[in-house]
Every structure is written in C-alpha cells, then in structure tokens.
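Training component of the fellowship. As part of building independent skills, the fellow (R.M.) carried out the full modelling exercise for a liganded target. The chosen ligand was farnesyl diphosphate. The inputs are recorded below so that the supervisory panel can assess the work.
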Amino acid sequence: MTANSEASKRSDSSDPIAPLHVAIIMDGNGRWAQTRGLDVSEGHHAGFENLRRVVADFAKRGVSYLTLYAFSTENWDRPESEVNGILELAIAVIAHEAQQLNENGVRIKHLGRVDRISPELRDELEQAVTITASNTGLTLGIAFDYGGRAEITNAARQMIADGVSANDVDESKVAEYLYTADMPDVDLLIRTGGDFRISNFLLWQTAYSEFYSSEILWPDFFGEHIDKAFESFSERQRRFGKRA
Ligand code: FPP
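Fellow's submitted model of the complex:
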C-alpha cells in the first residue's frame, strides 16, 4: 500500500486520525522580533531554535513526514542582509543538528533548487541528506529555495529531457518528478503568523490537505499550539471529492 492510499484508508475509519504528513509555513519571525524591539535576525534565530524543538516534538508524536518551508524562491527578494543572515543560520543549524537528527533516525530531504544557494549550504544539505538517507524514522523535508510553481515547471522540463512520451504523462508520472517523489501528499498544512495563504508552497501536494492557520508567530509555535492543530485536524471530515 502506498503512503497516500494508507492515509485515505485511515480517513474512512471512525478512529481519531493523526496526520501522516504535516507541512508547515513557518511565518512570523520578523513580527516576533519587531514586537520585542529586536532586529529581524534575532527573529530568525528564535525561529531556528523553535525548528529544533518542533522537529523533536513531531518525531515523538509519530508523524511520518514533516515538511518545513524555510525559504521560498521569492524570498531572495528580501533585503540582502536578511537573506545572508538566513543562509548563514541555515548552514550553522544543519551543521550542528545533522548528526543528532541522524542518531534519532530522522531522514532529511531537501526540496528545492540547489543551483542558487551558497556552496557551503549546498554541501551541508547534501551531507545531511546523504548521511541520513537510510534512516527509517521521521522524514524531514526542508524546503529551501523552494517554490511550488518552480517545482512543477522543473518536473515538466525533466520529463521532456528524459524523453517521456505525452501518452505516459499522467498524475503519478508528474508526482514522480517532483521533489517529493517518495513522499505522500500533505494531510495537514499549518501556517503560523495568522495569514491564510499558501505562498507558493507544495501546490501539487496540498490538493486535498486540511489547512490550519494559527495566530501564533513561528518562534512561539510549539507544545499546546501543535496540540490544537492536531485536535482541529482530528475533527475534520475529509471527503477527497467523494460523498460523505
Ligand atoms: C512564506 O511566507 C513563508 C516562508 C517561505 C517561510 C519564510 C521564513 C523564513 C524566510 C525564515 C527562515 C525560517 C526559519 C524557521 C528561521 P512569505 O513571507 O515568503 O510569503 P508571503 O509574502 O505570501 O507572506
């Protein structure tokens, strides 16, 4: 059984359902810093601290896949100092955390372009992906220089480059060419920071996701706030376009 069919089978059961794949739009670091009179870099620092905490929490909750939106294809247009700060923080966090995550059985995947990030970040990401590749615990997708439109465009380009014939292009073929090729669709999409938009995240994989928006800013989103998101998810009636 594929992970997707497992999720939809579980949705037919009357038991409370835990999401198999959770994706998070980690929004609100800047506002978190602003309300404390701090520089935005402090907000991102607190955001990365929370990222560590949340990954450990999700692993304990038995979620199989967690995908985090860390940097979009559009985020390059933020001020240069902010972009550089995020890149440096990301390098430091991956360098620091990869070994521990490996020991905890976490499998790291990078979702996104690799041709525009700095060689240092590319090396850290590649190393983290390589050393954790055979782990069987939580799969942690790190979306960095990721855009949903770019991902689908890239898939189309790759299919053409591979000589896939038009007759062979169906939904499962497209899914094979996405960064998430061996991951199930997203069950629960969480956005922190109070907004209700998808901001070019996992456009294909969220076709039937349940959406949860939290007012809480990303650095403060842990513990009871994750509980609330899960409670909300367990009350949803998922129909996948069928009759209830
Ligand atoms: C989408 O909102 C949110 C993201 C792509 C996450 C952005 C977070 C960072 C850049 C900070 C790095 C992450 C951590 C945890 C330190 P958006 O602001 O890109 O899009 P919008 O303009 O539609 O709100």
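The panel noted the following from the submitted structure. The helical segments are 3-10, 29-35, 40-61, 80-103, 119-131, 148-161, 171-176, 224-234. Residues 22-98+114-152+186-234 form a domain with the Undecaprenyl pyrophosphate synthetase fold (CATH 3.40.1180.10).
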